[in-house]
Amino acid sequence: MSDEITHREELAADEERRVHQQPNYMAIFWWLFGLTVVEVSYSVFTHPPKVVLMTVLVGLAVIKATMVALFFMHLRFERKSLGIIFASTLILGLILVSVGIAEQVLPRP
Amino acid sequence: MEHAAAASLPLPHGSVHAAPGGAHGHGEEPTTGIPHDKMGMWVFLCSEVMFFTGLIGGYIVLRFGTPNWPHPGNTLNIWLTAGNTFLLICSSVTMVQALAAVQRGDLRKLRLFLSLTLLFGASFLSVQVVEYWKLLHEGFNPHVSLFGSVFFTTTGFHGFHVFCGVVCMSFVTGKAFLGKYTQASHQGVETIGLYWHFVDLVWIVLFTIIYLF
């Protein structure tokens, strides 16, 4: 039973810590806003090679999406198990998309 | 004796392992330390990741496999949608501020920020309806081209998710105005917040790959 009490105390402390760890949400908002302005401006006003354009824009989108997941969805402060569950789905998705792209790009026998 | 000691342990505000029918009213303690509805939402979001991966993957495969894909800027109004993206980012900030407010016990700000989130979400949908109306009026529809087909499918499904979010957000906002959430019991706000941020996250990716290149 004392193990159970210790476990409960650990969980309580964990949750207390999580609830009170709040990042500067407005700073994240301005980052998201700024990166969106950079994205749109880069796409509309510059004419780089297609591959460079795609790489830069996807990179910026990944940074923005990661910020939302880490700070707004609080994955940064959650238990690792939640992050692992979510990340494993993203990895599966990445494999799915990569296979699709490879099928289009690689020469067929 | 030990049982009584365990039951009398102090629990923090918003604690996930409240007594049955306690702070969150779940009726049982989650062994994971994560409330059941929050864990359920995360599992649901994982399935949503696969759903949108299918749509985005399909878009990318068609895009790479089709020569002379039209430049989105020639058909779509990028600036209008950039403004819409700004609205969705704003709604994510107000949503997370609503959660922070209820965790501090500031119920007035909870109501304010939830209402703002609802407003931003509804505005996003309204702008999307205007965009669709204009595009359809100009003859760009799902069966005019492959681009039209994937554009309406992908953004349409996302719009449907936003619509569902707005409906759920209305429910949560109504409960907030009825005083159903407190500093100790506010799991509903966190759960709808997770869904809302996910919808924002998906839009960040969709906006980039559909509108910008």
Structure, described:
- The complex is a heterodimer of chains A (109) and B (213).
- With 109 residues, chain A is an all-alpha fold.
- Chain A has 2 domains: 24-77; 79-109.
- In chain A, 82% of the residues lie in helices and 0% in strands.
- Chain A is built from 4 helices and no strands.
- Chain A has helices spanning 2-20, 25-45, 50-72, 80-105.
- In chain A, helix 2 runs antiparallel to helix 3 (50-72).
- The longest helix of chain A is centred in the last third of the chain and has 26 residues, at 80-105.
- Chain A is flat and about 65 Å long.
- The model of chain A has no long low-confidence stretch (mean pLDDT 84).
- Chain B is an all-alpha fold.
- Chain B has a single domain (35-212), classed as Four Helix Bundle (Hemerythrin (Met), subunit A), CATH 1.20.120.
- Helix content of chain B is 73%, strand content 0%.
- Chain B contains 7 helices and no strands.
- Chain B has helices at 2-7, 36-65, 72-75, 78-104, 107-137, 146-177, 187-212.
- In chain B, helix 4 runs antiparallel to helix 5 and helix 5 packs antiparallel against helix 6 (146-177).
- The model of chain B is unreliable at 1-27 (pLDDT under 50).
